[in-house]
Amino acid sequence: MAKTFCAGCGDRLEERIIDGRVRLICPSCGSVTYKNPIPATAAVAIDSERRLLLVRRSVEPGKGLWCLPGGFMEIGETPEQCVLRELKEETGLDGEIERFIGIEMSKSTVYESVLVAAFAIRDWSGVWKAGDDAEEVRFFPAAELPKIAFQSHLRIIERVSTARKIPPEGFGAYVITSNDHIRIARDACGAGARILQYRDKSGDVGAMLRTAKEIRNITRDHGTLFIMNDRIDIALLAEADGVHLGQEDLPLAEVRAIVPPGLIIGLSTHSLEQALEAQEQGADYIGIGPIFATPTKADYPPIGVEALRGVARAVSIPLVAIGGITLENIDPVVAAGARSVAMVRGFQRDTSEVVQRINDLFGPGRPTR
């Protein structure tokens, strides 16, 4: 409810421009009444099948629609205490905070403006059932989310969405940057690249982070998935969609335990055995190769098209073929079952044209947010 009278002297408040904003001020005592957002929290719980926990609201605003478990903070309560209390009250579950996700703001027809602090929840226990302000509790697959009541909750879900994965039909051109990373990113994304990996072996961490953040802006503008090669720290700092690991990097399971829910993790593999193991460990996609001899993978012998065909038949997760692939030899690679094709040298020149020609081989489509 809008304030009408001064809390100090009781005189009627007036609107005046103060510090460039319209504010309520008391003409008698000069007291300024500030409009501040109402603090609230939201819990993000994703189960082992990567389904998201939502509650259907039984009250306004948003009655009948779905949202994350959460609610308003009480006096003397920390955001962490609030989110766990609301989780318990609305779903019946006890949990632990895994990490702070971020803050979102949204307008409210009741409270004017609400500031929502979101937390990822882990190790929850109990029997889930609808509680306060909820008429139903359910886990939803990322691709089947219902209509969300609040824009702030929708943006939080987008931050940790498990829906932005490489679909089974693949993404066509998987662009790996080299040398002039920014130029390649601009050209590739402008030409319709569906997924782009920033790969930089220079070792200059500060420069890598600056470049990664610029590439993040480029890929975001074009709806392109952004993958960081090797560096988990830079992937997180630059808000990348995922990270790509090699066989000599940190174990996939340990990386999964420390990164946000929904972060894409790809793994390089060089044999059928490694591909099956990557799938078992929970990789979101695998890179397989080198298909042909290439100086970027000089330590690995080429596996050939027939081995690629065998891997494509054996695994169900998306498959990105890499290694010595060019526009001249790509046809048998696609025929063998690759759903995306990665190149390093191939995208250095005529980036836009190469991206478009590869995407044409895999049909239309862009990643969905």
SSE topology:
Layout: E1 14-18, E2 21-25, E3 32-33, E4 38-45, E5 51-57, E6 66-67, E7 70-72, H1 79-91, E8 94-108, E9 112-125, E10 134-141, H2 151-159, E11 172-176, H3 181-190, E12 195-198, H4 205-222, E13 225-229, H5 232-237, E14 242-245, H6 252-258, E15 264-269, H7 272-281, E16 285-288, H8 304-314, E17 319-322, H9 330-335, E18 340-343, H10 351-362
Parallel strand pairs: 4-9, 11-12, 11-18, 12-13, 13-14, 14-15, 15-16, 16-17, 17-18
Antiparallel strand pairs: 1-2, 2-3, 4-7, 5-6, 5-10, 8-9
Characterization of this structure:
This protein is α/β, with parallel strands linked by helices and about 375 residues long. It folds into 3 domains: about 1-35, Ubiquitin Ligase Nedd4, Chain: W (Single Sheet); about 40-160, Nucleoside Triphosphate Pyrophosphohydrolase (Alpha-Beta Complex), CATH 3.90.79.10; about 170-360, TIM Barrel (Alpha-Beta Barrel). It is built from 10 helices and 18 strands. The protein has helices at about 80-90, 150-160, 180-190, 205-220, 230-235, 250-260, 270-280, 305-315, 330-335, 350-360, and strands spanning about 15-20, 20-25, 30-35, 40-45, 50-55, 65, 70, 95-110, 110-125, 135-140, 170-175, 195-200, 225-230, 240-245, 265-270, 285-290, 320, 340-345. The chain has an 8-stranded parallel barrel, surrounded by 5 helices. The two termini are about 35 Å apart. Mean pLDDT is about 85; it is low at about 365-369.
